[in-house]
# Entry
Amino acid sequence: IDEVYTRARGICEICGMPVPHTTEPPNPWAATRDHIKPLSEGGLHEFANCQLAHRLCNSIKGQAAEEFRIDWRQKVCKEPEKWTEPLNELWKQIKNDAGEIA
# Structure
C-alpha cells in the first residue's frame, strides 16, 4: 500500500480527504488499496488499477462504478447525526498524524 499511498500523496482518491498515515485497520479512516475496476468485473490486481482510499470510503463504494466519488459535505448536510462524529474523528486523526510527522 505504500506505493499507492505515495502516488496519491496521502489523499483518499474517493473523497479527497487526507488519509492518516499512522492509522491502521480496523479504524474506518485507515488506508486501503481500492481496485478502481473491481476484480469481480475483470479488473486486475495491479498498480495501475489501484487507488488509495479510506477503509470507510472503500466500503461505501463497494462494487460501484469506476468514477465513484464521495462528497462528505453533502453527506453531512443530508445526515448530520450519522456523519458529523466520524468526520470529527478523522480530523483528530489527521491532526495527530501531522504532529507525529512534524
Observations:
- Strands lie at 31-35, 50-54.
- Helices lie at 2-7, 55-61, 72-78, 80-101.
